[in-house]
Amino acid sequence: MTEDAFFELHRDIPRQGPGTAEDVAWALSLIQQPARIVDAGCGPGADSETLAESLPNSRIDAIDVTPHLVDEARERLACFGPRVTVRVGDMRSLPGPVDLIWCAGAIYFLGVEAALNGWRGALSAGGAIAFSEPVFLSDPPSPAAKAFWRDYPGVGTEAALVKRIEATGYRVLGTRQVTGRAWLDYYMPLMGRAARLRTGAGPDLAEVLDEAEAEFARWRVAPDQIAYLLCVVSPE
């Protein structure tokens, strides 16, 4: 698989991972209204858009390492004017102080512990981090869930993830399972794009399309057993 082929598939779709506006609203309900937010790994800006709509008096700094996703997010978020900025940036070094770091489906690039420890200094007093991470919904995990996450090491149960969070000196304000429709809303545009790209696809792109379609097929086996856990946490 080449990076160019991967990004060819992942261009011009609404989201780069599962999630809904309701997930954002739930997270915001657990904290005081944040005045300044960083969306770390913003992708094409789906959650930044929801945050901006939900918090009209807040400033949002949307960051992603991938230039074409930043371009997509800039176009999507231009309607909010200067209170929402979008730029190429590295999640390892976030600006501060901020009241909320939002990181949907991207914390795995750093690892949960590394991210929570590294971002602590960017938070204002009373600030929070909201992030999503894969979890198994049963112990032992179902065969379908185990097969789906076979290439993602370290997946555990919700209880195991909470222990990892608390070991870094954070308290968990709330958790929410992200399953079902949130995943379908991500996959359907992606599979539609895969179908359009199939005709005339070269070997590298064909490999990427095959892998994406195989992942979708594994998800369809048991959509109620494949989950992210959306966690809202704050330093002790």
TrEMBL record:
SUPFAM superfamilies: S-adenosyl-L-methionine-dependent methyltransferases (SSF53335). Keywords: Methyltransferase, Transferase. GO terms for molecular function: methyltransferase activity. The keyword Transferase applies. The keyword Methyltransferase applies. Residues 37-127 form the Methyltransferase domain. Pfam families: Methyltransf_25. One of its GO terms (biological process) is methylation. This is Class I SAM-dependent methyltransferase. It comes from Albidovulum marisflavi.
